[in-house]
Design brief:
Layout: H1 6-9, H2 12-33, H3 58-69, E1 72-77, E2 80-85, H4 88-97, H5 111-114, H6 128-143, H7 149-167, E3 173-174, H8 177-192, H9 202-216, H10 223-226, H11 238-263, H12 273-283, H13 294-325, H14 327-340, H15 356-369, E4 378-379, E5 384-386, E6 389-391, E7 396-399, H16 401-405, H17 448-465, E8 466-469, E9 482-483, E10 487-488, E11 494-498
Parallel strand pairs: 2-7
Antiparallel strand pairs: 1-2, 3-11, 4-7, 5-6, 8-11, 9-10
Length: 509
């Protein structure tokens, strides 16, 4: 019999054997606890699961796994079981046909959000309260112009402000990412706050910086949320704490705006989304189970900012990048805009059906760029059998929209930018069901209609007035992009050349 002393265990040889023994035990426990008949997937390491494999671009890794394991793949991040849906048919079956089972949301990453009673629309569990809030929010968004000409005016006003900002850099190289973020955020601000900010407003800049910083947080920084024991290691929790502080700043900004609204709130003069929610709170104040409370209003307004800020501005940045990389397509879009809208008239959503090539170009941007490659994860609300596999309750379910948008059988030469995919033989725009940049089902993006309005109006307004190109002698920017919480283009520089109006003395081109 071999008897090891404490001193033997502290030797390099003893530590190695101890570590091997611990890992073996953990592997055995993990294997024994693994539910039976899960979808196939790669074997993970003890404790960390498949995190090591995901140290690269996660959507690309998951798409490679799909080629090996199929449309439904299982893997682990730590002890968390995840299921990835890699084809349109399985996403549609889960999120549309079996919606009630696949309608949950994972627990918030931060203790700040976990401790909040009001989880909002994005992170809230699906049920009667969430349904009420979603119905109310969609109605209020429509009341304040989403899908109507009244909001078009606000978007065009913001497009004009963006164009004025660009004009200050005419014929000079500049970066546009901060400008697009400010423009998109101002549209949301006009709906929820009832006003727009000046671009150089310090308060607005602080808000933009906080929201932008939240999207730049690395997934590595959030590991303590997956492995709570890491929070006790000095320094390991810094990234998660920083993320929480950013969230708290954004929430505080919204709380201050609501406080200002309450000072001069008039139930007979509802000015914006915040006023509409405050009125609903007042109308329901005698209800025993109050679904409408101020804390919920704060969270929903933050949801609206986060939902539209990065995805819409990134898509607009991608659109301009593709125009730089494909000047022939940019010229065709401009020719269509000139012939249908002209250069003296502001674009409107009524022009969208009259400009099929422009609509097709934006659809191709949404497909190829796929700014939300994994959308927002769902969870299963009960144990279920799906496509012959057993899926435990509480399993995290991710739609791999990147894989769907880059499936060669659906999109021949999927990495080629080709707007004609969305045109028929007569040149009319063809809607493709397999294009799902906002996900699908009852938990699809609440701001889809607003985002589509913004993209079309901003894009046509800018191309109506400018031609965009590379700076002289500059290297061709990468079209690969960076994967984080969203898929963003690598920051690039461009030059805006004004397209003179016919009434001007300068020749048109």
């Amino acid at each position: 019999m071999v008897i090891w002393s404490v001193f033997d265990l502290l030797t390099p040889w003893g530590l190695s054997w101890t570590l091997l023994l611990v890992l073996s035990c953990l592997t055995a426990v993990q294997y024994l606890q693994r539910p039976a008949n899960l979808p196939p997937g790669p074997r993970g390491w003890p404790v960390i699961g498949n995190l090591y494999s995901l140290r690269k671009e996660t959507p690309l890794v998951l798409t490679e796994w799909a080629k090996e394991y199929g449309d439904i793949v299982s893997y682990h991040t730590g002890s968390k079981l995840r299921i990835v849906l890699n084809s349109y048919s399985v996403v549609h079956e889960a999120f549309v046909k079996k919606f009630d089972i696949f309608s949950g949301r994972p627990e918030p990453l931060t203790s700040f959000m976990a401790q909040r009673k009001a989880k909002g629309i994005v992170c809230g569990s699906y049920g009667p309260t969430l349904k009420e809030h979603r119905r109310f929010s969609m109605k209020s968004l429509r009341d304040f112009g989403v899908g109507k000409s009244s909001l078009e005016g606000k978007i065009i006003e913001e497009a004009r402000a963006l164009a004025d900002k660009i004009s200050k850099h005419e014929h000079q190289e500049f970066r546009i990412h901060r400008m697009t973020r400010a423009a998109v955020s101002n549209v949301i601000a006009s709906i929820v706050f009832g006003f727009r900010y000046e671009y150089d407003d310090p308060e607005f800049q602080a808000l933009l910086y906080s929201v932008s910083e939240s999207f730049s947080i690395s997934l590595l920084s959030l590991l303590p949320a997956i492995f709570p024991t890491l929070q006790y290691i000095p320094g390991a929790n810094n990234g998660l704490k920083r993320y929480e502080k950013i969230l708290m700043k954004v929430f505080k900004h919204v709380q201050e705006e609501i406080k200002e609204h309450k000072k001069d709130f008039n139930p007979d003069d509802v000015r914006d989304f915040i006023d509409a929610f405050l009125l609903e709170i007042k109308n329901r104040e005698n209800e025993e189970d109050r679904a409408f409370i101020e804390e919920q209003l704060v969270t929903i307004v933050v949801d609206l900012f986060f939902a539209g800020f990065d995805t819409t501005s990134n898509t607009l940045q991608w659109a301009l990048l593709y125009m730089i990389l494909h000047p022939d397509i940019q010229e065709k879009v401009q020719q269509e805009i000139d012939s249908v809208i002209g250069r003296n008239q502001d674009p409107s959503m009524v022009h969208r059906n009259q400009t099929p090539y422009t609509a097709a170009t934006l659809a191709e941007v949404e497909r190829l760029a796929t700014v939300a490659p994994l959308a927002l994860a769902h969870t299963t609300t009960e144990e279920t059998t799906f496509r012959g596999y057993n899926i435990p309750k509480g399993t995290i379910v991710e739609p791999n929209i990147w894989a769907i948008h880059h499936e060669p059988q659906l999109w021949p030469h999927p990495h080629k930018f080709d707007p004609t995919r969305f045109l028929d033989n007569t040149g009319k725009f063809v809607k493709r069901d397999k294009l799902i940049p906002f996900s699908i089902g009852r938990r699809a993006c609440l701001g889809e209609q607003l985002a589509r309005m913004e993209l079309y109006l901003f894009f046509t307004y800018l191309l109506q007035r400018f031609s965009f190109k590379l700076p002289e002698g500059a290297p061709v920017p990468s079209a690969k992009g960076e994967f984080g919480l969203t898929h963003a283009p690598i920051t690039y520089e461009l030059v805006a050349v004004p397209r003179h109006l016919p009434s001007e003395t300068c020749p048109t081109y």
